């Protein structure tokens, strides 16, 4: 039986294009071009009968990371995510150097519209990480 090698992470959201732009800025991903003959994904969506605009958006990795897909849903977020993304900004760093990198990345993401929930400081066993939320309230961590 062949192994599955590709993974896509899907977000339910109210504004797919807006959330996709946020995550592109966070991760350095690219947005795929719309189908031939359309100037945007929103134009493509509006061309389908019964669609009111951009009901979905996707962003593609630069490298081997998973593709992210954003789909419009009518309901808002009501509970904590069961799955979240760890943005690995401090990989290989420890102590004060790691914390400084995480805090600088946190400041960049807050300027993009993210919310800083709290910082977990290194405790001798675990390194520091920062809990955050994206522009629609989805939890993620700077690790």
What does this structure look like?
This protein is an alpha/beta fold. It has two domains: 8-72, no CATH class; 85-142, no CATH class. The chain has helices at 16-27, 41-47, 95-111; strands at 8-13, 56-59, 67-72, 85-87, 115-120, 129-133, 139-142. The strands form two sheets. Strands 4-7-6-5 form a four-stranded mixed sheet, with helices on one face. A three-stranded mixed sheet has the order 1-3-2, with helices on one face. It starts with 7 loop residues before the first strand and ends with a strand. The model has no long low-confidence stretch (mean pLDDT 87).
Q: What's the helix and strand layout?
A:
Elements: E1 8-13, H1 16-27, H2 41-47, E2 56-59, E3 67-72, E4 85-87, H3 95-111, E5 115-120, E6 129-133, E7 139-142
Parallel strand pairs: 1-3, 4-7
Antiparallel strand pairs: 2-3, 5-6, 6-7
Largest sheet at a glance?
4 strands, mixed
Number of domains: 2
The parts where pLDDT drops under 50 for at least 5 residues are: none
Average of pLDDT: 87
Order of helices and strands: EHHEEEHEEE
Structural class category:
alpha/beta
Distance between the termini: 34 Å
Strand content: 15-25%
From the alpha carbons, calculate the radius of gyration and give it in angstroms.
17 Å
Q: How many E-type strands? A: 7
Throw out a few tags for this protein.
four-stranded mixed sheet, elongated, 7 strands, 143 residues, three-stranded mixed sheet, alpha/beta, single chain, 2 domains
Structure summarized in a few sentences:
The chain is an alpha/beta fold. Helices cover 25% and strands 24% of the residues.
């Amino acid at each position: 039986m062949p192994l599955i090698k590709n993974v896509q992470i899907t977000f339910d959201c109210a504004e797919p294009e807006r959330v996709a732009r946020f995550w592109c800025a966070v991760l350095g991903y690219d947005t795929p071009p719309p189908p031939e003959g359309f100037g945007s994904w929103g134009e493509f969506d509006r061309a389908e009968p019964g669609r009111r605009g951009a009901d979905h958006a996707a962003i593609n990795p630069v490298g081997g990371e998973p593709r992210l897909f954003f789909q419009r849903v009518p309901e808002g977020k009501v509970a904590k995510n069961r799955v979240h993304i760890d943005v690995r900004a401090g990989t290989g760093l420890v102590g004060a150097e790691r914390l400084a990198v995480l805090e600088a990345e946190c400041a960049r993401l807050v300027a993009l519209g993210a919310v800083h929930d709290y910082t977990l400081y290194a405790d001798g066993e675990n390194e520091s990480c920062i809990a955050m939320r994206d522009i629609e309230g989805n939890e993620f961590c700077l690790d």
